[in-house]
Amino acid sequence: MGDPRVVIVGGGYAGATIATSLDAVADVTLIEPKDSFVHATGALRAAVDASWEDRVFFPYNRLLTRGRVVHEYAQAVTSTQVRVSAGRVVDADYLVLATGTAYPFPAKFIESDVLVAKARLARLREALREARAVMIVGAGPVGLELAGELSAAFPALKLTIVDRARDVLTTGDYLPELCSAIRSQLDDRGVAFELGSPLGYLPPVDVGVLAPFTVHTRAGRRIDADVWFRCYGNTPVTDFLVGDLAGARRADGHIAVAPTLSIPGFPTVFAIGDITDIPETKRASAAIAHAHVAAANIRALIDGREPSATHEPAAELVVLPLGPDAGASQVLRPDGAREVLGARETSEMKGIDLFSTAMAQLFSTAAPAAR
User: Fold this and answer.
1) pLDDT tens digits for 302-316?
2) Which burial class, exposed, middle or buried, applies to 177 when counting CB atoms under 10 A from its CB (0-12, 13-18, 19+)?
3) Do both 55 and 87 map to the same domain?
4) Exposure winner among 175, 204, 245, 272, fewest CB in 10 A?
5) Cα 357 off chain centre by
6) Which pLDDT does position 170 carry in this prediction?
7) pTM for the complete prediction?
């Protein structure tokens, strides 16, 4: 008999990590429609700086040594088979679901071809160079980080952040000191906040496109801008589940998992990353942690042992850069207490490199030096 067949659906942070972890012990097939991995953590920097594109897009061709990457969409997935968009079926002894979430551009991309994605980024940067005013809808981590990148790269740009909430960062368990630090730094750059009332209607143009418009909040505040971005609305990509796995998908699209990250009732099927129903922020570090737990449990099953690795949601943490040299972070001290770090520490942890060197190492490429 050959090596056990591990099929991984989705090549994001979780899928790429578990694929490399199991490559030496199993016959790994990674199903991912994009021709290049998208390092979403660096995508907002690439939206304002073309030199960052090579630190955001990494080809899959050097990810695996023994296994293979199938650049197709998963159209129908059961516990033992994946039907891809080319029409053929890939059989699995062990199945890992790691398809993540859909999110608006430029934080994520729908394009499968990296050349098309880069062309869209180039059009966006051209639009930003001509724009005088930008509106960001959403005062969560993505919206604030995008505001930081825009205000750092285009200091003359008028930025307005709109949110129905009355403050920034209200969707997570964030310390007041973090919210104050982020708000204060953006205030100092002249960023305007329209909080406490949603928009009455969305602009009549696509995100990232140069086209002047006027909108109003439900409270009656008028906002004039040339470009806008939607920074809310993570949507789990799980609508491909059929047959015996159809019931694993909850009404909100997430998938319930056991502490071992297997799907209850399916000991050889695992769900990892943003698609799980684990109550934690959907961030890359959590997805990678999921991948290591699931990989350990699949190795145990291959060896005839009971899976024993488990994942426990971590305390709410965030490293939130506002461009290369600013931002704030909420981290854990050695005693388990949370504390807020400022711009210098945030820049050193994430702002300068945005973890792109680690991604380059995973994909066996050499990342350009950070500027």
Assistant:
1) 999 999 999 999 888
2) middle
3) yes
4) 204
5) 17
6) 94
7) 0.93
pLDDT value at position 371?
44
AA letter at 2: G
CA atoms within 13 A on the CB side of 105: 20
Per the listing, tokens 């820049």 go with 347
Please give the pLDDT value at position 316: 83
DSSP 338: E
**Which residues of the chain have a pLDDT value below 50?**
366-367, 369-371
End-to-end CA distance of the chain: 51
Read off the amino acid at residue 215. V
CA 299 to CA 277: how far, in whole Å? 24
Per-residue buried b or exposed e for 332-365, using 16+ beta carbons within 10 Å of the residue's own CB: eeeeeebebbebebbbebbbebbbbeebbebbee
Question: What CATH number corresponds to the domain at position 298?
Answer: 3.50.50.60
**What does the pLDDT read at residue 1?**
63
181 is a domain residue: yes
Check if the beta carbon of residue 120 is closer than 8 Å to that of residue 111: yes
Residue ranges making up the domain that contains 96: 5-105+234-302
- Name the E strands within 138-265: 158-163, 192-195, 213-216, 222-225, 227-230, 235-236, 262-263
CB atoms within 10 A of CB 370: 16
- 360 phi/psi in degrees, rounded to 5: -60, -40
**How many separate domains does the chain show?**
2
**What tokens appear for 155 in the block?**
């200091």
Question: What is the pLDDT, as a whole number, of residue 364?
Answer: 80
How many beta carbons lie within 10 A of that of residue 2, not counting itself? 6
Alpha-carbon dihedral sign for residues 109, 272, 96, 252: negative
Do 148 and 42 share a domain, yes or no?
A: no
Asked, for residue 370, whether it belongs to a domain, the answer is no
